[in-house]
Design brief:
There is one protein chain. The protein is an alpha+beta fold. Among the domains are: 69 residues; 138 residues, 2-Layer Sandwich (Heat Shock Protein 90), CATH 3.30.565. It is 64% helix and 12% strand. It contains eight helices and seven strands. The radius of gyration is 34 Å and the shape is elongated. The chain starts with a helix and ends with a strand.
Length: 324
């Protein structure tokens, strides 16, 4: 029975009982109204109000839950659904809302996959141009400066040219570092463990933070897409530590789980507390959805932050790879 007919039926029942009492019960209303008659009338009105309130509370409770879910639903946290019980208007509404969430999550995952694929392709293109065009041009400039410094007899000019050499060499190193960040060639060539080791070492060198690595030796084999998601999440987590955590130590861990692998990045910084998630964390959640992974961010003020990414293996393969 729909909500409308339930409310209508209860009101009809209460009004019918009241009418029957007035017609056949020895109840009269005097003028002026006696105290006992007033008590009966007020009591009947109270019963009607309580009955209507109880039915509305029960009948509209699913709508209240639906409204709360509408205000908190997040497509980056899939699986938020309301249970559907019974039939009727409210149940049909909840069922339609759940189906709408299914469609939106599917469309979001598809569009995110296309966007991130295009982003990775653009990163590879920019990294290639940095390496081939900018890197080679700066290398040529560096060689020209060296030849000019070797040929000039002026000591002061030679020192200036050598200083320019050092500046150019530092800039070339920075360009190469940016190219590696945009396109982790070591991930494609040597695998995930080597890539994370290089990432942690580079991060420690440029930030001065102490980075501790805990990599398991019995990790299952993963496809390239899952390895890239793990690498990018670790990269973004370390970037967030450098920008916001005010930490001194960071631990990067990778271990085998029952259904896949788990990446963890833990720092001893100030934590994010109840602060709203920024673009970095939401970007990590989007990447996690691409491979059916789950991302958890645990943080309390003054107690650091821990990012955990649980990635399932594609087919539950049992093959392993060696740890570097």
């Amino acid at each position: 029975m729909s909500l409308f007919w339930r409310i209508f039926g209860l009101n009809a029942l209460v009004l019918g009982v009241a009418t029957a009492l007035l017609l056949w019960a020895p109840v009269t209303v005097s003028v002026p109204v006696l105290l006992t008659e007033a008590v009966v009338l007020v009591g009947g009105l109270a019963v009607m109000l309580v009955a209507n309130a109880a039915l509305l509370r029960v009948g509209l409770a699913p709508l209240d839950r639906l409204a709360r879910l509408m205000t908190t639903v997040d497509l980056l946290r899939p699986g938020q659904r309301l249970p559907v019980t019974g039939q009727g208007g409210v149940a049909d509404l909840i069922r339609a809302f759940n189906e709408m969430l299914d469609r939106l999550e599917t469309e979001r995952a598809t569009s995110s996959a296309r966007a991130l694929s295009a982003q990775e392709a653009e990163r590879r293109r920019i990294a290639q141009e940095l390496h081939d065009e900018v890197g080679q041009s700066m290398t040529a400039v560096l060689l020209e400066l060296k030849r000019a410094a070797d040929r000039t007899p002026d000591q002061e000019l030679r020192e200036e040219l050598q200083h320019a050499q050092e500046t150019t060499r530092e800039s070339l190193d920075e360009v190469r570092r940016l190219a590696r960040r945009l396109r982790p060639g070591v991930l494609e060539d040597l695998g995930l463990i080597s890539a994370l080791t290089a990432l942690a070492g580079d991060f420690s060198t440029h930030t001065g933070l102490i980075v501790r690595r805990r990599f398991g030796t019995d990790l299952p084999a993963l496809d390239r897409e899952r390895e890239l998601v793990l690498y990018r999440v670790a990269q973004e987590s370390l970037t967030n530590v450098a920008r916001h955590a005010d930490a001194e130590r960071v631990e990067v861990g990778l271990r085998r789980t029952d259904d896949g692998v788990e990446l963890s990045v833990t720092d001893d910084g100030r934590g994010i507390g109840l602060a709203r998630e920024g673009a970095g964390i939401r970007g990590m959640r989007e990447r996690a959805l691409l491979v059916g992974a789950t991302l958890e961010v645990d943080s309390r003020p003054g107690d650091g932050t821990r990012v955990r990414l649980s990635v399932p293996t594609e087919d539950g393969e049992e093959t392993t790879e060696a740890s570097a």
